[in-house]
Amino acid sequence: MERLSLAPARRESIRSARRDAPRLVARLADVRGRTAAYGILSGVPELTLTWARALAGPSVARRHLDRHLRSGRRIRTLATGDDVAALGVPRGRRSVRS
After folding, report:
1. How confident is the model over 11-23, as pLDDT tens digits?
2. How far apart (Å, rounded) are the C-alpha atoms in residues 71 and 75?
3. pTM for the whole thing?
């Protein structure tokens, strides 16, 4: 890896992902609930999550990783419920189904 033209911080991120991902997969192997999985996965760097997913194979751990990586965990919402109501959409669950 030292032969690659990577910044030192990037090299360290890769080293950390390679070190931490196998342990992450092992921890997720016995987790059944989404909340427990989220507790383990929140705050884990994206590179580590991605490497763990590559190592997980078809497993419970992979399903947790897939869900977490797809969840929009770091994306801020573009509109609130108040914004939608201001556009004239009635409040309540019925507006979601329409």
Report:
1. 889 989 999 999 9
2. 9
3. 0.69
